[in-house]
Amino acid sequence: MKKIFSTLKAPAAIGPYSQAVEMNNTLYISGQIPINPETGKLIEGDITAQTEQVFKNIAAILEVAGYKVSDVVKSTCILSDISNFKAMNEVYGRFYTGNHPARAAFAVKDLPLGALIEIDTIAMK
Questions:
Q1: Which of 29, 32, 91, 112 is 20 to 30 A (C-alpha) from 17?
Q2: What is the pLDDT of residues 84-114, one digit of tens each?
Q3: Tens digits of residue pLDDT in 23-40
């Protein structure tokens, strides 16, 4: 049975999608960009600050759904500029400490609201 999750500790969806959907003990978290959930606005700052905000949003969604960071099995990191990969990767390594999930990372021309990064996440119990 499909279950939808939402929390005020992460930004509301800015389109016709859910923050997260669980099916068969697998949680699919929609791509998170560095929006401050309290203001609903993209945070200012460099790739490090924006990546940290994205992981705060992901952590909040994992928590409301009853998952832990260690349950994450796959993430996709989408950058607006591949030259930001190293700085993003440093923050990523602080968030996932051991038994790292599988990952894809690539750059695209533009991200919503001018964000520098977007990360989607899959977790399993």
A1: 91
A2: 999 999 999 999 998 899 999 999 999 999 9
A3: 999 999 999 999 999 999
CATH superfamily for 3-124 is RutC-like (3.30.1330.40)
Instruction: Indicate the domain borders of the chain.
Output: 3-124
DSSP secondary structure of the chain: --EEE--TTSPPPSSSS-SEEEETTEEEEEEE-SEETTTTEEPPS-HHHHHHHHHHHHHHHHHHTT--GGGEEEEEEEES-GGGHHHHHHHHHHHS-SSPPEEEEEE-S--GGG-SEEEEEEEE-
